[in-house]
Amino acid sequence: MIVLALVAAGTQVLVESHVSEEHARFLTAAETILGRIPEGNSKMTFSFESWLFHYIAENDLVYLALAEAESGRRIPFTFLLELQRHFLEAFPEPPTQGTTPSFQPTLQTLLANFNDPSKDAVSNARSELAETKNIMSQNIEAIMSRGERIDLLMDRTDHLHSESLAFRKRAVGLRRQMWWKNAKVVGLAGFCVVLLLVILFGAFR
Fold it and tell me: Which parts of the chain span the membrane according to its record (predicted)?
């Protein structure tokens, strides 16, 4: 949130606005900051308590704003560029302190607009992008999860197929073993019958 903004010529404040009276106390600190700004064009941020003073100095004019530290730098400096544009449109020639009060409503409107989250197009776009990324991530995770389940099912199918082949081989081997055992039993029984007949035939002869 931007709580105070001003335009100055050097250390002389041309126009100033603050969100509420409790923020008027920062005006003294702002004037101190103005005295520390070097000559020439520059752009910088000063820390003050839990707040940040941001300014743009260009062509002997200073555009300064005080914002919460949580606001970062993008929004305050975007505000300052917009303030600079409106101010130069209103005063193409170097203004004096007596001619700038008419800019007060414009400055107040700019503050109100930039402190309205719904009017921050970049934040809204980022929020929508983050939401889209989240949905895409969820979809990808779902697809990957389905893919893992398909892979698992295929692995299980392959495992069952391998077990089925092994079972068939064991069954064929077992049938062969049983056939040979049966053949041996039949052969042995046949031999015993023949031997018994030979013995009986010899006894009655």
Answer: 185-204
Q: Print the domain residue range for 58.
A: 2-119
Q: Indicate which CATH number applies to the domain containing 104.
A: 3.30.450.50
Average pLDDT of every residue of the chain: 82
Instruction: Summarize the confidence of residues 76-91 as an average pLDDT.
Output: 96
Residue 202 CA, chain-centre distance (Å), reads 104
Please indicate, yes or no, if residue 105 is contained in any of the structural domains.
yes
- Quote the longest CA-to-CA distance of the chain: 159
* Residue 115 burial by Cβ neighbours in a 10 Å radius (0-12, 13-18, 19+): middle
CA distances from 111 to 58, 84, 117, 147 (A): 21, 13, 12, 52
pLDDT one-digit tens code per residue, 106-117 = 999 999 999 987
What is the SS3 assignment for 92-117?
CCCCCHHHCHHHHHHHHHHHHHHCCH
